[in-house]
């Protein structure tokens, strides 16, 4: 039996409403289904997610379904999938998203033609009946580039602000070099240190046009809308970003970008914290204070001046608290 040329990793928890659509779109990618290996991870679902995964697995020549009796989280579930990769390329797909037909062959052809480490694409957000194209924030299209040169500028969107693991395709060597894995145990923002490592340590990448991935927004149970203790993991994730950048050979050049990103994301969570339970809110503010205490003061104050509106005031207050902690 011919080996697959590509692996698609699909982790999901309690996604029975959507997982059928997700997996159906994978049946519409290649004319020969032997090109693709499906690795589906049922991460402790209490609904029919696993049963639907198993039914769809029967439609693929190469497929595995992994069942976690208790949820491990998205990062750990993706890592489980990475351990099963076959072929020279792989990608991620979340259990409530889907792809337009023919997306994966286009990405595979680009990855091979450019002989680069990974390719990235735009995507479309879907919120009820509304659809919106979100562009990957990189000027050059269809050309091979140095991933490091896509990190800056410091105070505008760049590719490290576009961390979506599912927005592209990776060459197998990224897995072999240890750049594809996520930190186990992170339940949110797991893709932030992941994207920084990728852009600092990979050799080459390209942003390419392809049939779109469609990303559902506004689901009532999505982690981005959750206000429980899992949101506290974002401070750990951003702490890892600072660790990665501070240890880099170009730390002085790229640290201002990491500082700006930490402050922008912290301000977002501080505003959201008003709707959290008091104990969770206090723990979140403590984590952010410790995070901000690591930032060079001159760079932090300069970055706060570029963040407008109420977020600037909230950040300035927490930074003062960090100074006196």
Describe the structure.
- The protein is α/β, with parallel strands linked by helices.
- 40% of the residues lie in helices and 16% in strands.
- The chain has 11 helices and 11 strands.
- It has helices spanning 19-26, 49-57, 74-82, 103-114, 172-176, 191-201, 233-246, 251-272, 278-293, 297-305, 309-324, and strands at 6-12, 36-43, 62-68, 89-92, 98-99, 118-120, 123-127, 130-134, 168-171, 205-207, 213-216.
- Strand 2 (36-43), helix 2 (49-57) and strand 3 form a beta-alpha-beta unit.
- Helix 1 (19-26) runs parallel beside helix 2 (49-57), helix 6 (191-201) runs parallel beside helix 7 and helix 7 packs antiparallel against helix 8 (251-272).
- The protein is globular, with a radius of gyration of 20 Å.
Q: What key phrases describe this protein's structure?
A:
325 residues; alpha/beta; Spore Coat Polysaccharide Biosynthesis Protein SpsA, Chain A; seven-stranded mixed sheet; four-stranded mixed sheet; globular
